[in-house]
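Blackboard transcription, Thursday session:
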Amino acid sequence: MSHQAEFKVWRGDSDGGDLKDYTVEVNDGEVLLDVIHRLQATQAPDLGVRWNCKAGKCGSCSAEVNGKPSLMCMTRMNTFDPAETVTVTPLRTFPVIRDLVTDVSFNYEKARQIPAFSPPEGVGPGEYRMAQVDVERSQEFRKCIECFLCQTVCHVIRDHDDNKQAFAGPRFLIRAAELDMHPLDSKTDRAVFARDEQGIGLCNITKCCTEVCPEHIKITDNAIIPMKERVVDKRYDPLVWLGSKIGIRHD
Amino acid sequence: MSTLEKHTYDVIVIGAGGAGLRAAIEAREQGLRVAILCKSLFGKAHTVMAEGGIAASMGNVNSKDSWQVHFCDSLRGGKFLNNPRMVELHAQEAPDRVWELETYGALFDRTPEGKISQRNFGGHEYPRLAHVGDRTGLELIRTFQQKVVSLQQEDFAEFGDHEARIKVFAEMTVTELVKDGDAIAGAFGYFRETGAFVLFEAPAVIMATGGIGKSFKVTSNSWEYTGDGHALALRAGANLINMEFVQFHPTGMIWPPSVKGILVTESVRGDGGILTNSEGKRFMFDYVPDVFIDQYAKTEAEGDRWYEDQENNKRPPELLPRDEVARAINSEVKAGRGSPHGGVYLDVSTRLSPEVIKRKLPAMYTQFLELADVDITATPFEVGPTCHYVMGGVEVDADTEATCVPGLFACGEVSGGMHGANRLGGNSLSDLLVFGMRAGTGAAEYVKGLGDKRPAASEADLEAASRAALAPFHADAQARTGATAAPENPYTVHTDLQQVMSDLVGIIRRESEISEALQKLQGLRVRAENAAVEGHRQFNPGWHLALDLRNMLDVSECIAKSALERHESRGGHTREDYPTMDPDWRGVNLVCRLTPGTDTMELTHKPVPTIRPDLLALFDRHELEKYLTAPELAVLDSPQSPSTVEGEQA
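(Written on the board underneath:)
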């Protein structure tokens, strides 16, 4: 079964652009990315779009579908009414390059700022021993496919470009949590880094990131809130504060 | 070309999948300045799609495993056509390469003792695959990505510049390698974002571009897999070997049409999934070939017991190497015992509880639930073969990954020889690690050996490369002046190419069909030359595809020519008109190369490197009889033969 459906797709570049109307065939069982590919092959060969795996594993085909950040390869067409016009726009938080392609270099810069995994001293390759239950906490965050949907939806940077300098965004807060919870990472100041360098305090846990995560990572509950608690433990616990002042404990 | 953007490095790595990143890390750690060129964003390479695991005989789950057993399994899987030295190095070094990943921060699933867990897979005698659920490839890519960042942080501390010694150029496609005489001088290409041309000058280029699946209609491969590295190396003078061997993974999704070809990991079978036909029969028991008859269970009861007790039972035939399972599924469907959408059923719900399935195969669970409305914890699901991997590739020296072109190296899927006629699951990720590192070392040593002598690209070559890359923008004008035929839509040419390759050079091949394919490829080549693009150079997918078409056509021609030449069936090459494996062909590699100074492809025979006697001695004589010719066996039996001596010692 197939039908003709109406689409509005944003076309343009850094100088501006607007929504263009297209009528495209949609077949049973298809996802939005199939339709975008058909549009490319039949009507708009130069339509700029990123995609790789088409299986929800690489996180390349991120876009905003009717305003909601989504992976186009995992957006099934039967979730729309056949009569509905589907609007596809580029990720709003990042500068447009062309059409649905945005400049996501912000994310690579933030990734580079996080101190790397620090191997435990005196434990050679092949000697790492960790319990499954302990690695699972970090493994949840390593499921991240870097689609940057959490980054684009996060109002801290979505609506406030000037926060980009100070705020790393949910994707990199879970990276900090992942390293903090890594059973053998030898750095002990991941929470301090999240506070001072990643701006974790700017997050007011509205959980939008968790809602859009295609990997269903509990970003807020399992990463950001525990990291905020660690920050609080270190900074505001009166005993820790007193200890650090009188030289019992250094953080 | 005076305004051409130029960058100078010691080593250029083309491709940012597992092989490319491992090679880049190695070259950088040996003190060289390295550029990584990737066709997509950094971290999106096709390696992220790898699901099952990394094969390495660490012996964490069954301590009987050893590199020797892994060696034998890989050679059997490849039907003895592999480059034995590569198989040896691969089996010996894989465990170290996996352990090293933990020092970069990788987090594998664990055994109860806290070691890296290992799972069963087709063709592997013991549980051997280090894994992270069913997203092992993602873990590998992310680990390397983060290792690159960690090296950049070191360089920032030392030089004040993150990119002083290792830099990633994302969304950049190489269209031509440039040479100085015989030697590599660099790589020419364009940035997707701007469409601007760029030259990377370097005496060493490591090709790590992956595979060719986009030439086929049903494939598990992503858009990047257009055979770029194969074609670039071929045009630069390198040899491609074993191109007739294309792996069709037995289990791809087949319904709905939109997901056709998406991979269903072999772990489903490794963890206990069974294959049935429309009559509910576990048909794989009917398809155990003679060469494997001693290694697989003969009854369902024995196969079932193996999951609990591997010492006293043999493995079920669902875990035969991929070529066998793909052919069996093909035969069942042809015999009218297929599922409604032309596949067979895979069922993991009978052996594992929903909780275990969700824990061990989370991506498969979500993939079927979200894309096909099927709950794999409760019901069987339909699967069928999908083009997955090319065993063939650039011929390299086993130890250094050097090609016959000075300065050109290749590793990972783009290289050939390691996997012979068929690759075992899990051997791809270990291949990336082992030979990625070796290519990095090989290139570093080559560059150090050059001293201050650096090859330089000629202006004329750069002009030619630029003209070729811009041709699709002029196709309309040329057609108007009558210089060429009507302009073609590159998307249509691509679809037609996929149809030709799938219909005529697919899983089961016949002489008449392959010949027809070769003729049609000539026609497609003319059409591809007239592929026209609309719009401008900035992020223009139509243009990119028009350029990729040439590579896909070069590779497809190699596949078809080799497939026509090999008069036997072996591994990933099945000829209906030559249905059996022929020991006389075992020792033959088919080599494709361009006749120097022309665009003509020539095909020659070259002996497969001989298997050293001490390695042959790892097999039973009885098993070798199935693969080797009578004269080869006679050498083995002669009293002077070192293999007999070694064999007795072993």
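Lecturer's comment: Chain A touches chain B through 61 residues (CB under 8 Å).
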